[in-house]
Amino acid sequence: MTSPRPQVVALDGPAGSGKSTVAKQLAQRLGWAHLDTGAMYRAVTWQAMQRGIPPGDGAAVAALAEAAHIELDPGTGRVTIDGADVTAPIRTQAVDAGVSVVAAIAEVRRVMRRHQRAFASRVGRVVAEGRDMGTRVFPDAILKVFLVATVEERVRRRVAELRAKGAGVDPEAVRKALVERDRQDASRDEDPLRPAGDAVEVDTTGRTPAQVVDQILALVTSRVLPSETA
Questions:
Q1: Which of 17, 58, 191, 218 has its CB 3.0 to 4.6 Å from that of 13, i.e. a possible disulfide?
Q2: What is the DSSP letter of 194?
Q3: What is the pTM of this model?
Q4: CATH homologous superfamily, domain 7-218
Q5: What are the sequence ranges of the domains in the chain?
Q6: Phi and psi torsions of 192, nearest 5°
Q7: How many CA atoms lie within 13 A of 146 on its CB side?
């Protein structure tokens, strides 16, 4: 007997567009699991760095990703790789600098897709955030949303996030890194960052996460019977 197809809300968008905050809050409102696919790529990047593997060594990073046991706690959002809790270490600037290179490796992306689809099949109902959720990983998602925000807004959010962690921050360096990440994500050969043809674009500039979640929640309930969302 085959398992029923999971119900997925796919949130895509560039760095700083609000994906993580919105996805977490939306999942909580729906009572669904939250799948942070970016955390999976970050975990692989962190592990590669720990082992002295350059992010650009495609064959070695792909082999690491294939062998790694990555777990995302659907309730707490904690991330482990091969038993090590890397929830905090994967959010450093060093990982920021390498993750786009890792994410551009075609074989790594294929391995991650298997992980991501297995997670959704296991938990059943998922708010999945990333950069290719609607275009590649979950093309049959019940709703696809592409979040956008101005570069200024995205830089402001990233600087605030880093400062909240006590990190010294050069806003101009953050801007350059963010723009470069956009370029890499949009130009990679495998699953480039772009909205799905049937995605709803939502601009988060100047809006609170709660306002954005309310808008997306209305879209979800228009596509799923109210009794099926909880």
A1: 17
A2: -
A3: 0.88
A4: P-loop containing nucleotide triphosphate hydrolases (3.40.50.300)
A5: 7-218
A6: -65, 155
A7: 14
